[in-house]
Specification:
alpha+beta; 3 domains; 6-stranded antiparallel sheet; 4-stranded antiparallel sheet; 18 helices; 11% strand
Length: 629
Amino acid sequence: MTAEFGVFFLVIALIISLSQTLYLLPLANLRPIIGRVMPISSWLQALCIAFSLAVLIILRIDSDFSVINVIEHSNLSLPTLYKIAGTWGNHEGSMLLWVFVLALFGALLLDSSEKLKLYAVSIQSILCSGFLAFILYTSNPFKRVFPPMTDGKALNPLLQDMGLAMHPPLLYLGYVGFSIVFSLATAALIQGKAGKDWAVIAHKWILISWSALTLGIGLGSWWAYRELGWGGWWFWDPVENASLLPWLSGTALLHSNIVLKKRGLLGQWVILLAIITFALSLLGTFLVRSGAITSVHSFANDPERGIFILVYILVTVGGSLLLYSLRGDKIKSIGQMLPASREGLILINNLFILSACATVLLGTLYPMFVELSGGEKITVGAPFFNFTFVPLMALPLVFAALTPFVAWKKASFQAVIIAIRPAMLATITSIFLVLSLVHTEIIYAICGFGLAAWLGFGSIQWLIGASGKRGKYAVFLGHLGAAIIIIGITTSSLWKEETQKQTALGEKLEISNYTVIYESNIDITNGNYTAKQAKLRVEDKQGNLITNMFPEYRNYPISENTTSETDIYYSPIGDLYSVIGETRSDGKTAIRLYFQPMINFIWLGFILMAISGIVACFTKYINNKNENL
């Protein structure tokens, strides 16, 4: 009977959600009543979905193999951690988590009876109703089978990793957080105004969403690096791109909303960006769950579900764009914007960021369009994205170091150049240092390290000179994080080393400054898998022991899958990365080693950028609290 409770709570949540949408109707007598009860009903809806999610988790922990979702994605020997985390490691469970966050954020938004927020939560309820209907009619995680099975098929081995426990929830916080901004934007269109007050309300949600999405993307790349065994951190996979798209437009939205909050300008532009960002979030959902693309990250291959989501996107986003075309001119700016100003530079940056976003969108969708039109199945790989995306994103990063030094309203660029001279001199010095140390890939090294130095030193100079300015730490951490990511990308891309060999016991492999000796291997039996574990002795060139590494080649008998589990030796200068394959009949084992210089700078940078958003949100809270004293 437990599974039926899950469905019951979803049905109640759908009824509540539909009732909240009635606030949008011109019912003079009914609207005030709905508005008064909406704070309670919003929390009740979120609670019902939370109960439903809890039911699914309990079913998985208890290994109830009368439920199809548990059969398909769990088994008796699966560790409890992965039984819980695996709840959102499949299509049905991930959609349930999505709609829970959607309802929770709607309830959190409604902290007052302000009309804008009531409208926004009603729009949020429309979104919620669509996803609840989608779950109940096409993706019910509580469907039963009779007679019950005695065991399940197991969770995908690639998802049996700690990254799974955190990566999807963080992405959903980002995606769904932008739904709140979308709802606020649509509510602003209904009311015909989006000024400084609107920007203040929206800014918190933009920061939360952007920070969560930043951390989720970083965690996803870390998972791919550790788990997939190819030694890289970003493959330009379509599903990776699907998370990058709303992050890029969300970055443009974040900076444009600062202009609206500070100067009352770019109101129409901010509203349009809010719609675009949520549309890209929904597009990512469509790509992952429709079967339109193939990826290790995708959760479903069901065209019927894809059509439902596609119609949902057309209705919600199409409706909001229609409303924008009818009501957008009601949103007025309260001043004049000059190109030679901070707001002007931010707008120029927006255009470059969105151009970069467009290239990623084109490269992601083009193969699908070619295939649908009857053409051959093609892929768009790293060369296209590196050639188009990288140059377009380099210019906004150059401007990012400059923007904080540019005055609002009207600026003298001569004064800006004088102000930023220390950072310029430090950057030039860094470039000469690179020239003296680097002897290969010189042009790329100068571009990468020069850009990182410019952004990093500019951030440090800004922090030193921004005494008493609000948000200085957030600006510093965000831009410094981007600089650190650039260093990690540059070094790991240009000077990555790789060696592989069919290796017998006792043989050596040389890579970078390491000698790796294949000493022994042992067989491991786990309840969930069996494995061959190799012992690799890592020495320096003088023969001194540095560490021992223990990569594994695993076999999952229930799902009939094999995986290579990496072992990584982390050091300040870079990672030594080891992978083993199957042992041949002659006793030799395929061993692959990578040396990735300074690759951990990438994830350090992601963390700093995510922290910058949290710091900005916290700073805003402290400032508002002090102003109310």
